[in-house]
Amino acid sequence: MATHRESRAIALPSEWLFDIVADVERYPEFLPLMRAARIVRRYPEAYETEQTLALGLLLHRFHTRTELARPNSITIVSDDRSFCRFDVRWAFSPLADDHCHVDFALDCATRSLFLRPVVEMLILPMAASMVTAFEARAHALAAKTGAVPAATAGHASQPGSGGVDGRSIP
Hints:
Alpha-D-Glucose-1,6-Bisphosphate, Chain A, domain 4
């Protein structure tokens, strides 16, 4: 089973990070190994996606369901036949000065003995860089839109637009 856990404080508001993690269709723009991500069905506080990971010529396509508990947590699970377990959990806790604490956990196991090393070669390297990639994306979007957390700018945050459900992201 592939497992990765990470916990850290980030100098951005928790709502910004929540919205960036929830915006799955943008993942291929900044996540290594993510070839495609498409929402196939939407619900009020959830959505289902088809995602494709790629490493060279190796491709792995799978389906997930994402539950959104804005602004505190995101849970991503898969009942795809290729996995006996696929569980990703994000938790966001606001801290002082527009900072937040992020907890990330991934647990993944494949059914196929043949696919196990292939999927683990794709998922473990991606998981190890996941929080850093989302943090870098949040900082890049904040810089691009001129939105800077209040602690840095000395005034209220001004996130931009484009969240997964119409809510704002930097």
